[in-house]
Structure formats: structure tokens, C-alpha cells
Amino acid sequence: MFAKLFASSTVAHAHCDLYCGVYDPAEAKIAALSCVKTAKKYAESDDEVFRARCISVKEQQAENAKHHLMVLWADFFAPDHFAANPGLHELFWKAVHQGGEAKKSMDPAASQQLVDYIDEIATIFWSTEKAAGMGVYPPA
Q1: CA 35, CA 33: separation in Å to the nearest integer?
Q2: What is the pTM of this model?
Q3: For 97-107, how does the pLDDT look when each residue is reduced to its tens digit (9 = 90+)?
Q4: Is residue 13 packed enough to be buried (19+ CB in 10 Å), middle (13-18) or exposed (0-12)?
């Protein structure tokens, strides 16, 4: 039924789902910092219900950080950025995988490493001409 309905349709290809032109590593950093602080609050508490909530929130925020990193990697950075920054692909790979480490660990250091990778990516992001028209919170 659906095949007939869409048989005459044209396949469209787009740079991203909806090219909004708003990219900023701050989204990933806020999520990663939430992981750091939540892991610390977890360690400081002896309330098992609160600690369970900490785990849930931290896992969600780690996943958010990974999502925002993937959007930057796939939708913002272009081949010329990777050519100018040869380690950028590896840096993103490390950051996304560190997001997984932050997700599964209650050690604040695992989340802090994610923040550190995001800071490295942000430095490269803000060094591009493209970021000037897209970033929301440029560094002072």
C-alpha cells in the first residue's frame, strides 16, 4: 500500500534533518558537566532513592552529550575542517566513546574526561569561520 502511495515520489537528500544553522559545542558541554556534578552528588549521598535517580539522570545526560557531539561531527564540520585539523576525527571518536564511559561509570573523572574532549572540540569549532555565524555562546 505504501509502495503504491510513494511510487511517484522523488527521493530528497539534505545536509541534515532540518538545516537550522545553529550549532554550538556548549550543548554537549552542559550535558557533560551535568554528568560530572551528578556523579559527585551521587558519591556524597547515602539516600538510595536519590542515588538511583542520579544514575538515571547521568545516563540521560551522557547520551545527550553523545548526541550533540554526533550532530557537530556529522552536520557542522566539513571536509576542509578535517583537513585543517588532522586529529579531529579521532578526537570526536574519543569523545563519543568517552560519553559511553561517562554513561556507565559513576566516577566523576570519567565524565570530566568527556568535558575535556568537548573543550578540545570547542577550541577547533570556534577557530572556524563557519562558527562565527552559527555559534550561540562564543567564548569571551
Answers
A1: 5
A2: 0.85
A3: 999 999 999 99
A4: exposed
